């Protein structure tokens, strides 16, 4: 068999020690130059180095896709073979009981979950969640102005609260210390640890899975945690179900939508409860990561902030915060969002796919059970897609000469992944990012704090921090000041109305 090109490895371990645990997307990107052009039958790839790489991690074949063309050819055109996930024994099978949609293999349960969630999160249906998203944007803007030093917690709180309201019709969470936030963050941490390569021997020695729980601590603890998570998620789901049955649901939620006839695709209540929980796991870190990058980028590029605010003043004015009705008149806001997701995608190597059968591509052999990594970092810098200033943060990539969006329906980046497994929450994500970014820029001027000599402290981009699969911006602090006199009064009034109208204040 002739495998795609890639670095030569050592006997037995292959390339195991050549792939860094942090920022591995940069290593994959730099190998492009060395493990160059592929033999190809038809197209321009003949001139682009390293579109597809082969690595061997102690016997496990890894295929890295570095260009849009190869990712589309394999993950979209041959989706039936390339849409499974690698086996995650501890995280996927024991901690999540095989019911976490993100980690599930390409089987029956994933298919039914995907159909249900596409229905409840589609472009049209997701507009029913916009009132919740607008409310959360106002609460976030208010908090940022009133206690800016807590800015990261405010973003985390707002993102979590927004997802929980969308999924379960919960009222806004007003504190980052809320027990439900602690519970969900505990679960996310536990999952991150279990997914971290090398955490559990059973992942590379699956024979250990035969051990009974009393002999395997990892198994015992994972089963116990799964039972705890399940009872909490089932409880949250059944609260929505009861409220829907009694006609007490305040607004449309994801769970309530799935209870409509024809929407649940034969999923049991247990499976629906886990599907709803999967949304939190998929949406929380990705969305909050983008919002933390946003705050940093606004001090790194103050001219972009000013330009966006000029457009907001023209379109929205100063007597009310932006709404979704303004969305199509604010192309520059969208261009900033698209460019954030292109330049610093929250998940630079996406979620790995896996093949279900042997395959050939351009004469190269891709074995069954290969782990396939769409290297979004590289694909978002594909010279066949972006003409110039590829390494710069440049919102104009997405605008035509008149300042309009080049193609409103095209994402303009690949941060949401490819094919059958692409992000099912992307419309919700785009809406949250739009209304948060627009409301923050409408309300406040974001500036770096100053040192004792009055010099602004703007950390260099080189100080960005990588912790596993996410890339975080440098640590930084800001001042957020109201842009005009009426802001405080408008935000205060809107906040009072929101908190008054929710069940939270009535309890
Ligand atoms: C900026 C925000 C977000 C980004 C960049 C993002 C990105 C991604 C990526 C890269 C994948 C994997 C795609 C693949 O395997 O090819 C994914 C999957 C997924 N995302 Fe998102 N996501 C975001 C927000 C959200 C939100 C808010 C939700 C829920 C409301 C969500 C729900 C999901 C789910 C359920 C999956 C698994 C899909 C499957 O395996 O079939 N995501 N997302």
TrEMBL record:
Keyword terms: Glycoprotein, Heme, Iron, Membrane, Metal-binding, Monooxygenase, Oxidoreductase, Signal, Transmembrane, Transmembrane helix
Coiled coil: none
InterPro entries reported for this sequence: Cyt_P450 (IPR001128), Cyt_P450_CS (IPR017972), Cyt_P450_E_grp-I (IPR002401), Cyt_P450_sf (IPR036396), Cytochrome_P450_fung (IPR050364)
The UniProt record lists the keyword Heme: yes
Molecular function via GO: heme binding; iron ion binding; monooxygenase activity; oxidoreductase activity, acting on paired donors, with incorporation or reduction of molecular oxygen
SUPFAM superfamilies the UniProt entry points to: Cytochrome P450 (SSF48264)
Main location, first listed in the record: membrane
Cofactor: heme
One cellular-component annotation, GO: membrane
CDD domains for the chain: CYP64-like
PANTHER family noted in UniProt: CYTOCHROME P450 MONOOXYGENASE ALNH-RELATED (PTHR46300:SF2), P450, PUTATIVE (EUROFUNG)-RELATED-RELATED (PTHR46300)
Record protein name field: Cytochrome P450
Native source organism of the sequence: Dendrothele bispora (strain CBS 962.96)
